[in-house]
């Protein structure tokens, strides 16, 4: 959990509304013990991995069914009271914070895998199922769900933020892997947004409209997902490079050649140093790429051979292979621990995390200019990236009490985003807008497109009760 | 072109509004010769590949730029007059027909490839560029655009109907391959719906909202697309099977095993017979699969070996290979000629074409029950399918003057759709709703979801001028 920050540049517009006593009474009558107004419970639901400090929601409902969600929203709709869906609490842009007060609807008890249609390569889950839980549940079927944002996020939350992560370069993001949703609308009505058919041109793509809508258009109560046959062969490799530029160039060539690499992650020397200290490892403290190849045994070997050749052309060395699950886990430890190792490298610090994504040909320019700026700032940072997609994250490790430092870090983020937008990229590849990126969305999409989003929001949520105050100013 | 039909079951609700003289004058002042009210021109823009006979639009504008489209829509908006975008005219569900009258905006002169960003695997085109034109334009870059709906459709039209076709099993549909759009809204404003970043979680997914919106939410004036490196090796194969069931089972196993096959098309014995007669060929008049494999030479060989083994297990025989472009073209002739061969097999007939798509495990059941019904009906038909996606098309070849026959064919389509919906499939995999499938959309999506679509339509097009009367009743 990031330490909260009370930095002026980051303060969201908070205007909390109390839950009307009559609504509270009606909710209590309907839900009994499952409704909580205990401060500890509310506080737990009033923070996420973002740096914002906002007072908690007025109450928390532990929903157990679609009917629970539907009834709660219908009641809140009557009283024009905000509702905020809550999954794993791992979002990092302030999506969950009750800036207008209201009811937090916790869906963690809605954690059943409803259907595994192995023959169709689809599953249907309740929104509180996490990605790891899903993969446990389907392990015996020879299938897996590839989307891996790092955190063991809930699949409802991952849908709502259009999450992606390390496997997206091969398997796509939640955008490509959600087939259909069940959604509770602003009035409490329950709709389905699609079927289990792999493709369809039946009317507007409501599924994709809800994927990434951050709880502002409806509450997701079921998710139908694509899953994949476990590859016959998986092989992981780590390779060090003299410079970040070399690692990035090797990545760009790999993508441009069309190698179907499953993962290609950049870890900068800072991160390696932090991971070595944190996990008592002795990795070469140089920029490295972590890669994974999926396919037939021959196919994996062929892909890996091609990439090894490309890497060698850019000074890649210490190409280390891992084919057993244990060896792979060891290699991926560095990547998975990077965030925690970084935050622990500076006691009391918090990380201001960036999330730009640019067309692959601009990746080197965007990244290297930003590294130069970060180095010049003197602020400690780490850098990791899903570089095969052109997406990377700086974590600026700031002292939350040091306003000047926070200010400098935010200024770095702003310049990075301006740079990415000038290169036809996006301010957020996978974290979403939440509270933190509203201004950047306006710059990226333009006022016309944001107005269109707002028009859709108003049409589908006329009383502005669905996670209000997020994505754009209300 | 299908012969028109005046069959009661197919008659859309036509309520045409005249273009107000003052608007016509304003359009003429702005566009001069590019605005036409000549009956021949209007009639050409008043029909597509659908069976509906609707009087033509009141005028046709040959737009040459986004500014043209924007100005025309702004003028029509002032006068509450409908606008209908027109690309290649190859849609088959009545999308283009002027059921409420108005102005047809022909975008065929907007046919420039605006940017080829080969290093990023993206291109940006004007909406009148066709898929073949695009592939010609990028041939020297070593890239290709895979989406192939059969017709040489415009990329604006393919976006607007969420088209797909033979390569979708490997490369996805327009849903997965449109990165961003430039759109003229109902008021004539110009917006962009995304960037060239491969992924983004920046606000609502307006791109996917417009893909498949059939001109009812805005007019597409630019399309940014993903393109792919031409595979190092391509190999095509044709294989005959004793029964449709065998061919379908071989397909299902191929998909379930995760073989990254690029194309797998079913052609039934009727279609082969019609193609043989039409093109003087001597193909075995049995159900066949046409397949294509893309990858490295070794990868292609491996995939093909796996599929050949699967096919042999289902009585597959006469596995014939083609690796040169000429041989491949010869093999694909049967598939590409199927529609025309079929329509010519019964002089004066028209084809009522179905478009269901079901989860792959239900494909055999859905298909075989429908074949039995079609056989029992006595109506000549052909059957082709993008079976790797669970999507297939019957073409019922009816005499348009024979109302009973048309009725029986429509009844077959209705039962097929009911069957597909019961199997968690969709009434349209790739053709769209248009005029023909409104009732089925209601059955598939449910009134709540269709209401939501209507709410979005009303919010974004308050005067209902954008291709009104399509997708759902207005």
UniProtKB/TrEMBL annotation, chains A, B:
Cofactor(s) the protein needs: FAD
Record-linked InterPro entries: FAD-bd_oxidored_4_C, FAD-bd_PCMH, FAD-bd_PCMH-like_sf, FAD-bd_PCMH_sub2, FAD-linked_Oxase-like_C, Oxid_FAD_bind_N, Vanillyl_alc_oxidase_C-sub2
Domain (FAD-binding PCMH-type): residue spans on this chain: 53-230
Signal peptide: none
Keywords: FAD, Flavoprotein, Oxidoreductase, Transit peptide
EC nos: 1.1.2.4
Pfam entry (one): FAD_binding_4
Record-stated family: Belongs to the FAD-binding oxidoreductase/transferase type 4 family.
Protein name according to UniProt: D-lactate dehydrogenase (cytochrome)
Originating species: Ramlibacter alkalitolerans
Upper taxonomic lineage: Bacteria, Pseudomonadati, Pseudomonadota, Betaproteobacteria, Burkholderiales
């Amino acid at each position: 959990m990031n330490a909260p920050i009370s930095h002026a540049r980051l303060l969201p517009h908070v205007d909390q509304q109390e839950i009307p006593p009559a609504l509270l009474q009606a909710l209590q009558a309907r839900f009994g013990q499952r409704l909580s107004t205990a401060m500890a419970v509310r506080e737990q639901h009033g923070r996420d991995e973002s740096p914002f400090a906002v007072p908690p929601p007025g109450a928390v409902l532990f929903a157990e069914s679609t009917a629970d969600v539907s009834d709660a929203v219908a009641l809140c709709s009557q009283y024009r009271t905000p509702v905020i869906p809550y999954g794993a609490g791992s979002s990092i842009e302030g999506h969950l914070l009750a800036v207008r007060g209201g009811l937090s609807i916790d869906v963690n008890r809605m954690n059943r895998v409803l259907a595994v249609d192995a023959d169709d390569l689809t599953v249907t889950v309740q929104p509180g199922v996490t990605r790891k839980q899903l993969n446990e549940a389907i392990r015996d079927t020879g299938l897996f769900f590839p989307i891996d944002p790092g955190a063991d996020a809930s699949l409802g939350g991952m849908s709502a933020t259009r999450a992606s992560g390390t496997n997206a370069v091969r398997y796509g993001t939640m955008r490509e892997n959600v087939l259909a949703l069940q959604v509770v609308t602003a009035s409490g009505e329950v709709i389905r947004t699609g079927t289990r058919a792999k493709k369809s041109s039946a009317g507007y793509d409501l599924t994709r409209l809800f994927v990434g809508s951050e709880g502002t258009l409806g509450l997701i109560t079921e998710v139908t997902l694509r899953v994949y046959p476990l590859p016959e062969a998986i092989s992981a490799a780590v390779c060090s490079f003299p410079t970040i530029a070399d690692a990035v160039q090797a990545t760009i060539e790999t993508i441009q050649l069309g190698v179907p690499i499953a993962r290609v992650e950049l870890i900068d020397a800072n991160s390696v140093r932090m991971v070595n200290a944190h996990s008592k490892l002795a990795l070469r403290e140089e920029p490295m790429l972590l890669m994974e190849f999926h396919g037939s045994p021959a196919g994996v070997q062929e892909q890996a051979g091609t990439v090894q050749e490309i890497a060698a052309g850019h000074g890649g060395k210490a190409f280390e292979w891992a084919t057993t699950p244990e060896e792979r886990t060891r290699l991926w430890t560095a990547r998975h621990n990077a965030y925690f190792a970084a935050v622990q490298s500076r006691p009391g610090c918090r990380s201001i995390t960036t999330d730009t994504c640019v067309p692959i040909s601009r990746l080197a320019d965007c990244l290297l200019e930003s590294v130069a700026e970060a180095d010049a700032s003197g602020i400690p940072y780490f850098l990791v990236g899903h570089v095969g997609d052109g997406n990377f994250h700086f974590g600026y490790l700031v002292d939350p009490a040091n306003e000047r430092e926070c200010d400098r870090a935010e200024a770095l983020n702003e310049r990075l985003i301006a740079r990415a937008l000038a290169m036809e990229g996006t301010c957020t590849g996978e974290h979403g807008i939440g509270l933190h990126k509203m201004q950047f969305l306006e710059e990226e999409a333009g006022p016309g497109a944001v107005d269109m989003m707002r028009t859709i929001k108003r049409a589908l949520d006329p009383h502005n009760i669905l996670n209000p105050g997020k994505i754009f100013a209300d």
